[in-house]
Amino acid sequence: MLLLITSKASKASLDKAAEDLDGYIKFVVDLDKKIITAGGLRHFDGEQLLLSNGSRQQDLWGGGVDLQTKEIDFESMINIRPAQSNSSREVLDLKVRDLIKQIVSDLLVKL
Fold it and tell me: Closest by alpha carbon to 34, among 111, 100, 109?
């Protein structure tokens, strides 16, 4: 289930978001608005939800978090952005990674 999260997610919300991938949650973070989508099978869906709610493409980055281990990854097809110096599925900029970690920690799971 894909959720738009604007404040700290409840355990029930996390459980719903984690149903799609058995404890792993795909997320898309809006670095400017400091909001996140969680759940679903594709980052594209979270990206589209945020764009339809006024987010800007350049502020959106995808990744995932394992709820059991609290390991976070920074990989998604939506992250391939040569115009923003990111030619990989992985977020390459360490400052962007730090912002993503902070938003995930604030809204989803404490890292």
Answer: 100
Single-letter amino acid, residue 36: I
Tell me the C-alpha distance between 101 and 106, whole Å: 8
Nearest to 24 by CA among 63, 76, 79, 82: 63
Across 81-107, b (16+ Cβ under 10 Å) vs e yields beeeebeebebeeeebbebbbebbebb
Per-residue model confidence (pLDDT) at position 98: 98
Q: Is the pTM of this model over 0.90?
A: yes
The answer to whether the CB of 5 falls within 8 A of the CB of 14 is no
The phi, psi pair for 93, rounded to 5°, reads: -75, 120
